[in-house]
Design goal:
Distance between the termini: 33 Å
Radius of gyration: 19 Å
Oligomer: single chain
Shape: elongated
Structural class: alpha/beta
Number of helices: 8
Strand order of the largest sheet: 2-1-3-4-5
Order of helices and strands: EHEHEHEHEHEEEEHEHHEE
């Protein structure tokens, strides 16, 4: 079961976040500031962190900055009352992966958590093999029939996501959230365009094909 660390000094809000996440199938640990969060991470593994910014002892900026300095890439969703552009910029510069402003819509929070966890899984696995075709995440390279090609980032991530789960149907919105991000202004037509380019690139590939599920989305199937 995936485990989430919640760093929030407002006890009632922290308990609300914990309740919603537990209801959605996650295990949670609650702490009240950045220092307690660092202490918790020394003794346990967490798949994702929810962190407030304004906390006593150690704030969210400092907490995330220290994490990234030691090479810890656990995804972080920053939740804060601050909404000025400079605050958002500082959050991302410190290493935050996503950002929500209070008051938080907890249903939206769950969607963002799910999207961050999916993206994190894609990155951590680093490579996928389907038949004789190998996808290398670090270089966006696909090798098939003895030939390698480097794909544009979005095309690679689309193919990598679907190839990681052969036969699984992904809706256009799922692919948009995972590859373009939850806040993207692009519409689902963008997915269709990139799928078309992938089909053209891998026309005749003996290992897989991309199948359209009309009115739903796409899936990769093994040949």
């Amino acid at each position: 079961m995936l485990k989430i660390l919640i760093a929030e000094d407002d006890r009632e809000l922290r308990r609300l976040f914990a309740h919603v996440l537990i209801k959605n199938g996650y295990t949670v640990k609650e702490v009240a500031n950045g220092q307690e969060a660092l202490d918790a991470m020394e003794h346990d593994y967490f798949d994702l962190i929810l962190s407030d910014i304004m906390m006593p002892v150690m704030d969210g900026y400092e907490f995330v900055r220290l994490l990234r300095e030691v090479g810890n890439n656990t995804p972080v969703l920053m939740i804060t009352a601050k909404d000025a552009f400079d605050d958002l910029r500082l959050g991302f510069l410190s290493g935050t992966d996503d950002y929500m402003v209070k008051p938080v819509n907890v249903n939206e929070m769950v969607l963002r958590v799910q999207a961050l966890l999916r993206r994190s899984q894609m990155i951590s696995e680093r490579s996928q093999t389907i038949g004789g075709t190998v996808l290398e995440y670090d270089t966006f390279t696909v090798t098939a029939n003895g030939k390698s090609q480097v794909l544009p980032q979005k095309e690679f991530l689309l193919l990598y996501k679907m190839a990681s789960y052969p036969g699984k149907i992904f809706t256009r919105q799922q692919l948009m959230d995972d590859v373009w991000g939850y806040d993207s202004d692009s519409d689902s037509h963008t997915v269709d365009v990139h799928i078309g380019r992938l089909r053209e690139r891998f026309r005749g590939n003996p290992d897989f094909k991309i199948v359209t599920m009309r009115g739903i989305g796409y899936k990769v199937v093994k040949q």
